[in-house]
């Protein structure tokens, strides 16, 4: 009896200008899981938070990304900011309001 293991297809890359497509390709090549998350979350407010916490890790004790990857992530973050408006005021601040 043979077992077929189906590997899920990677999400398609977002439609990007040529210079940003190269940045996305670099991230996807060097850090495939981050590239996959970017593709899955593209166009959502959640991607802004994800990129922000990925680029500016505050957990400490981390090696960090190589400079070309950090630059590519920053370009993607900045471009995505122009496409997706900020979350509505108060969204995601439930616990802050409860204090």
Please describe the structure with a list of short key phrases separated by commas or semicolons.
99 residues; disordered C terminus; mainly alpha
Sheet bearing the most strands, described?
none
Distance between the termini: 59 Å
Portion in helices: 55-70%
Radius of gyration: 16 Å
- Summed over residues and divided by their number, the pLDDT gives a mean of 81
Shape, principal axes of CA atoms? globular
Number of strands: 0
Secondary structure tally, helices: 5
Outline the low-pLDDT stretches. Answer: 89-99
What is the H-and-E element order?
Answer: HHHHH
Strand share of the residues? Answer: under 5%
Derived from helix and strand composition plus strand pairing, the structural class reads mainly alpha
């Amino acid at each position: 009896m043979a077992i077929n293991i189906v590997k899920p297809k990677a999400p398609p890359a977002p439609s990007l200008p040529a210079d940003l497509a190269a940045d996305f390709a670099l991230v996807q090549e060097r850090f495939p899981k981050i590239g996959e998350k970017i593709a899955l979350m593209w166009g959502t407010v959640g991607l802004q938070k994800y990129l922000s916490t990925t680029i500016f890790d505050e957990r400490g004790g981390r090696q960090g990304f190589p400079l070309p990857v950090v630059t590519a992530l920053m370009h993607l973050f900045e471009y995505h900011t122009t496409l997706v408006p900020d979350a509505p005021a108060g969204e995601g601040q439930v616990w802050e309001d409860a204090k």
